[in-house]
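Researcher: Re-running this chain for the archive, since the previous output was lost when a drive failed. Same request as before.
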Amino acid sequence: MDAPRHINWNITYRCPQDCEHCYSRAPREQPELDLDGKLAVARNIVASRVPSVNLGGGEPRVSPDTLPIIRYLSESGVRVSLSSNGFGVTAAEADALKDAGLHSVILSLDFASAARHDAFRRRPGSFDACLEAAALFVERGVALLVSTVLTSQNLDELDGIVEVAERIGASGVELKRLRLAGNARGRADLALSREQERTLYDVFAGLRESAAIPLTLVYGAEPRAGTEDGCPCGRTALALLDNGDMAPCVYSPTVIGNALTENIDDVWRDSPHLEALRENFHCQGT
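Model: Regenerated structure tokens:
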């Protein structure tokens, strides 16, 4: 491919929550781009003919730059999604995001119950706020996905999470591997054991068959027929950090260029690191 099919852009690492498992709570040495810098990156995305971008972080809604970036990208023909915890979304904000051209929202849901979700997010009311945000987006025709980071604490709640997702009108659920960085650094107790990993694949296969909505598992590096979708990083997807740095994925410490000074499509085609990664693929985020 001449350019990535998808870019995960961590547009800001600011966030009002402090979740137990959040990889992005690690200290940041480089400053976040201002609006002019972000617009320059957005122009690079458009010029490189990238069809799909997800804005994440952090909580991208806290940045006043997010709306103009969504508007610019969507008006340029890029499909834009937004990853959010959903806390504090109002009808007016949902209207503004929809009007800016937001295609879909990805809401984080860690547990199927308010008590466990709120405790894990260390913010009372987080569960109810997530469901309220879901209703606002669904009412406005913004596609809704649910995202869950897999931990040793919520493996037993996957069926409940899927049920909640179906009830709130989600069009799918994505289950992701935990990264031991940021707040999760040194928290090996949160990672799945080998036995739990085997359980995960069995449980997921059953859920995928019975669920009324599509389920996606991004856990291992390579696809497994009927369960694992495999990691897209560096093969079909690229990451952008808040200072414009490019990386194979948002969890990777390896910087392969900067979107302020280099064309995304050039780096995608010519990066020696990406070339080596594609020849001998392994997870960049462990």
